[in-house]
Design brief:
- With about 325 residues, this protein is mostly helical.
- The chain has one domain.
- The chain is built from 11 helices and 4 strands.
- It has a two-stranded antiparallel sheet. Strands 3-4 form a two-stranded antiparallel sheet.
- Strand 3 and strand 4 form a beta hairpin.
- The chain is globular, with a radius of gyration of 22 Å.
Length: about 325
């Protein structure tokens, strides 16, 4: 897995991403109220606009192939990340996180997961560079994940359970039982001891959930591009816009009833694409009478976009139909 981008472009890109993350932190530190729908809408448009400008820059300076791969990768990563939001909602409710602290919790959790995802991407890139048969493993894993996701159906509270790491943190760390606004540490009024607030556990849960979801999203983008620069930037832009999307559509997630079905179709498609590309790499162009076609980036982007469109429309129609069927209670 290689990148055609010169080192200077890498340095400038990473510096730009760090600057955006730092700017976001300044905004959070100065905000003294819970995130409103207006705030979330403005910031979602800001991050989507940044991704669009970045894509235009790639189309202009790196050509249609690189630009198309970024757009397909960004849309795929962003749509797969929406599934994360279900778990975020469950975690916030499970730990009764104060509204004022939720923005800070998501920010830290997502930044930590961005760093961990970078490690995953480098590991995956190294594996691909070492052996082309890794594509078979990635492809088979995505198809398996797609089937599992389709069978599991809708998201529910069972999608999040405290793992051994979180339970270990509870035993080891000096944790208090109460929140103190958006603070990560507070002083116990009775003993005077310095204690960590439950926000530390919540941040860890958010970060680990994001990394677990990366187990399918990163192989998915490898199925769309082998350019390390595109993989890293598509992941970064998708994750940076995820936090505000939580506040914007958190209440609407239950209406996207076919989300898992749509995502499973996308994962299965990319998994099959990976396996077909691996077969082409092994000079296998036909299986019996079946010719294995080359699946280009335009075809991939069109399929992903169409699947998300059909999924969203079908979900909204189903939710609207179910709402009309709910009987209206009347008092005798």
């Amino acid at each position: 897995m290689v990148s055609v981008m010169p080192p200077l472009v890498w340095v400038l890109t990473i510096a730009g991403l760090v600057a955006i993350v730092a700017f976001d932190l300044i905004v959070i530190s100065r905000r003294n109220h819970a995130v409103t729908i207006k705030d979330a809408t403005r910031w979602v448009l800001f991050y989507v606009g940044l991704a669009a400008l970045f894509a235009i820059g790639l189309f202009m300076f790196s050509g249609g192939k690189t630009g198309g791969e970024f757009v397909a990768g960004y849309i795929t990563e962003y749509s797969l990340s929406v599934d994360n939001l279900f778990v975020f909602v469950i975690i916030m409710a499970r730990f009764s996180v104060p509204a004022l602290a939720q923005d800070k919790v998501l920010y830290i959790g997502i930044v930590v997961s961005m760093l961990l995802r970078a490690v995953f991407i480098l590991a995956g890139a190294a594996a691909i560079s070492a052996a082309s048969w890794v594509f078979y493993i990635f492809g088979a894993f995505l198809v398996y994940t797609a089937i599992k996701l389709a069978i599991e159906g809708e998201n529910d509270d069972e999608d999040f359970q405290e793992n051994a790491v979180l339970r270990g943190m509870r035993r080891i760390l000096p944790l208090g039982h109460d929140y103190d606004g958006a603070k990560l540490a507070t002083r116990d009024e009775k003993t005077g001891k310095r204690l960590l607030t439950p926000l530390v556990i919540v941040i860890s849960a958010i970060g680990m959930a994001n990394v677990i979801f990366a187990l399918d999203s990163i192989p998915a983008i490898f199925g769309l591009t082998q350019d390390a620069y595109v993989v890293l930037t598509a992941n970064a832009f998708a994750l940076m816009g995820l936090r505000q999307l939580y506040f914007l559509i958190g209440g609407l997630l239950e209406r996207i009833v076919y989300l898992n079905v749509g995502l499973s179709v996308i994962l299965a498609f990319i998994g099959i694409k990976l396996i077909v590309e691996a077969l082409h790499g092994s000079h296998i162009d036909d299986i019996g009478a079946i010719h294995l076609p080359h699946i280009g980036i335009i075809t991939s982007l069109s399929f992903i976009g169409a699947t998300l469109f059909v999924t969203t429309v079908a979900s909204l129609v189903k939710s609207s139909y179910d709402a009309r069927r709910v009987p209206v209670r009347t008092d005798d």
